[in-house]
């Protein structure tokens, strides 16, 4: 697959790479890279590229010099459209899992053309969960896992097209109008991150007070801003942090549970599986 070869040429050999589908005609590849500063040219092709960041990225720019920092966080997924080229400059360390899906295969799974535009820094739970399951299943390589990967790739294609339809209908664009001001959202986000640093979460009253709104108006504005509720956003950020910790072999599942604020490993395992579709132990094994 040319897109995979081009990425290897720029970033070097991946930590791992797995072929998905038939040996003679793979439907997809999944690979992980740990790399420093790089300029990655994503040329138009017949390959759909999905990138999941395993660490918070505060140093990426697109080909127009626009910072992607606020949108690319650990655990988020970016989708590069096969129809459009892009150049992404990364100015610091990165740890990413990339999934390269043959466009013809995806269109056969959809029984329709693949028309998704580029989308960056997504926390769409079905997309993240499907990509996590593809990662875990590709590493596990059990007797029935090839079929499971096919099903997950189809689910992934359907989820991306669902999101693309929302984009074309304008529902994603309208999320970012009528919400919190940029300064207010930065204050709330900083409050959330500071609380997560200590394994806690701020109350609705605390966040509303920080931006001088009533709780009702704050919840409405936050949802307009992010497309989700404060609770779901915080859970998602907690899972993002868990993914970043799970990539480090020295961390046990219990260590990660404690690090992201869960009182017991069992509670963490249940929450992670509900959000990501796989257990944290399976993700840790796949990334270690």
From TrEMBL:
It comes from the Bacteria. The keyword DNA-binding applies. Keywords: DNA-binding, Transcription, Transcription regulation. One of its GO terms (molecular function) is sequence-specific DNA binding. PROSITE patterns: HTH_ARAC_FAMILY_1 (PS00041), HTH_ARAC_FAMILY_2 (PS01124). InterPro entries: AraC_XylS_family_regulators, Homeodomain-like_sf, HTH_AraC, HTH_AraC-typ_CS. The keyword Transport does not apply. Gene3D superfamilies: Homeodomain-like. Residues 186-286 form the HTH araC/xylS-type domain. This is AraC family transcriptional regulator.
């Amino acid at each position: 697959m040319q897109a995979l070869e081009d990425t290897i040429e720029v970033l070097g050999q991946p930590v791992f790479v797995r072929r998905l589908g038939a040996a003679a005609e793979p439907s997809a590849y999944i690979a992980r890279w740990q790399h420093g500063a790089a300029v990655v040219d994503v040329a138009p092709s017949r390959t759909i590229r999905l990138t999941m960041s395993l660490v918070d990225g505060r140093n990426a720019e697109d080909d127009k010099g626009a910072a992607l920092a606020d949108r690319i966080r650990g655990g988020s997924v970016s989708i590069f459209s096969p129809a459009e080229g892009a150049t992404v400059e990364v100015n610091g360390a990165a740890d990413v899992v990339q999934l390269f899906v043959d466009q013809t295969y995806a269109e056969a799974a959809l029984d329709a053309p693949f028309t998704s535009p580029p989308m960056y820094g997504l926390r769409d739970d079905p997309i993240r969960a499907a990509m996590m399951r593809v990662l875990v299943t590709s590493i596990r390589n059990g007797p029935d896992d090839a079929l499971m990967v096919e099903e997950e790739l189809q689910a992934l294609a359907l989820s991306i097209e669902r999101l693309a339809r929302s984009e074309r209908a304008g529902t994603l664009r309208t999320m970012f109008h009528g919400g919190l001001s940029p300064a207010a959202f930065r204050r709330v986000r900083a409050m959330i991150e500071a609380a997560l640093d200590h394994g806690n979460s701020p109350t609705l009253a605390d966040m509303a007070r920080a931006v001088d709104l009533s709780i009702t108006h704050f919840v409405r504005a936050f949802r307009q801003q992010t497309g989700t509720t404060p609770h779901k956003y915080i859970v998602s950020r907690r899972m993002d942090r868990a993914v970043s910790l799970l990539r480090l072999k020295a961390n046990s599942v219990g260590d990660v549970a404690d690090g992201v604020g869960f009182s017991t490993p069992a509670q963490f395992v249940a929450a992670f599986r509900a959000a990501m579709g796989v257990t944290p132990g399976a993700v840790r094994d796949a990334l270690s």
